[in-house]
Amino acid sequence: MDQLSRRAFITEAARVSVLASLGAFAGTLPIHAESSPGPTPAVSASKASRPNIVILVADDYGWGDVGYHGSTIRTPNIDRLAGEGAALERFYVFPVCSPTRAGLLTGRNPLRHGITGTFKPADAGLSLDEHLLPETFRAAGYQTWMCGKWHLGGFTDPAYLPMNRGFDHFYGHLGGAIDYFQHVNRELNQVDWQRNGVTVQEEGYSTDLLTQEAIGLIEKRDPARPFLLYLPFNAAHGPHSAPGSWLAQYAGVGDRKARTHSAVVSAMDAAIGRLFEALDKQGIANNTLTVFFGDNGSQSSAGAGSNRPLRGEKGTVWDGGIRVPAWIHWPGVISSGARNETFLSVMDVFPTLAGVTGVPTGNKLPFDGRDRWEAIRAIAPSLPDRIVIGQGKDLAVLDGEWKYVELPEEGEKHLFRIGQDPSEEHDCAAEQPETLTKLAAIAHEIASDSHSTKLKGAGAKPKGSGGKASKRAPDAKPGEGKGGDRRQGTRRRENQKSL
Description:
Layout: H1 6-11, H2 13-21, E1 52-58, H3 76-84, E2 86-92, H4 97-106, H5 133-139, E3 143-149, E4 169-173, E5 184-185, E6 190-191, E7 194-195, E8 198-199, H6 206-219, E9 227-232, H7 244-248, H8 256-281, E10 288-294, H9 319-322, E11 326-329, E12 338-345, H10 349-357, H11 373-376, E13 387-391, E14 394-399, E15 402-407, E16 412-417, H12 433-447, H13 449-452, H14 486-496
Parallel strand pairs: 1-9, 1-10, 2-12, 3-4, 3-9
Antiparallel strand pairs: 2-11, 4-7, 5-6, 7-8, 10-11, 13-14, 14-15, 15-16
Helix pairs in contact: 6-8
C-alpha cells in the first residue's frame, strides 16, 4: 500500500480494517524513527471496529528502572511488551504526579490550569472547565474504567471525583501516596481506598488489587462495546513495601531501599503480565491498543530507583525528572521491535488516541498536545515543537534541537542540544544567546497562565510542591553533584516529603 496522507488514511480506514482482520499487515519489518515506514496501519474510524484502549502508568518510574534500558530490576513483561510494540524513547512528562495526570487527561499543558505542583487533600481538584479524555471516549460509546491513583482532587467536593469526570467505574485512591497493604493516606491518617465514592476496607497488596479489579471489569464487560481502561499504579511511589515473595527475589541487594524498590517494580511487572494474559484469554489482545509510561522520574537521591544516564530526578526539570520509559503496543498495527526516537509528550496521548480511533474529542479548550500517530508509526518522525514543562518556578522548553532550562531560585538559565547531549552536560547558553532568549519567551508565555488561572472551587489552586531542579550529576547523592551544592541535597529531602 502506498503511504497515505492523514486525510486519505482516515477516509480509507474502514476498508483497511477488514484487511487487518485477515492479517494483511502481519509480519511487517520493525520500524525505526530513522528508517522508512512500513505499510500504513490498519485503523478504523467506524464504531464497530474501534480498538479497546489501555493506559498504564507507573509511578515514580525512572529511565533506568526498566530491563530494556539495562536495569538490574527484572521486568520481563514490560520488556516483552515494549519489544512486541514500539519503545517511545523520547517521551516527556512533568516532574511530579498531578501535572502529568492533568496533561494526560486534558491534552493541555497543566501550567495553563495553574498546576505547578501536586494536589493536596484540601484542594478541590482539576478545573471543572476542563474536558477529560474519558468523557470523550464515553460519549463515543466506550465503557470507561479507572483502577488506580487519581491525584486530581475530590476529597472536598464529589464533583471532582473520577466518576464525575467521565469514568463509569472508579476503584483506587484519590491522594498521592498510600500504604501498599493498609491503603492509609498518611497526610490524612485514614484509609484512602474506594470503589465509586464509597470507602472500602480490603486486605491485599494494592498493585494486585488494582489489577484484579481491572481484570474483573474486562471479564464482565459488554462485548458489543469497546472499553477504555486507565490503570495508574501507585507503584513505585513511596512508602515502598512489597510482598515477602518479591523481596526474597532481591535478597542479594544490600541496600534496603533499593531492594524494596526493585521488588515493588517487579510486582508491578508481574501484574501487567496478568492483565495481558486476561486480554489473551478473552480473545481481545489483538484489538487492544496499550500505552505505557512513567509519570515522572525516580526519586534516586533517596535510594529509590535510577534515572541513569540522565541528569536529575523526580521533582526536577532535568531529563531525569521528565523523560521516562514508555511504549505503545497494538499487535498487527504497531510493528514489533521499534525504537522510536520521535519527541513526544504526555499531552499528545489524548489527541493521538482520539485521532487513531476516529473519536470526536468534544473539548472546547484547545489542545497543547497533538495527534502524533504518524510520527509514532515513523511516517513523519520529528523533533519537538514547543513542549513546555514546569515545576514550581522552574521551567524547561523542548523546541527543535534545543532544550532550555530555567532555575529562578538559582538565577540560572541553560541551553542544551538535547538530541546530541541527553545527559545535559554541555551548556550552549553563552554561544546561543538569541536561542536562549527566544525559548525563555516561549516558556513564560505559557507559564504566565499559571499565575492568572484560578481553579474552580474553594482552595482549588494547588500548593506548589517545591521540588526545585537539582544541580547534581545523574543519580549523585545529595551534596556530591555538580558545583558541590549541598543546599540542593537538603532541599530535595525536604521537598520530596510532599511529592
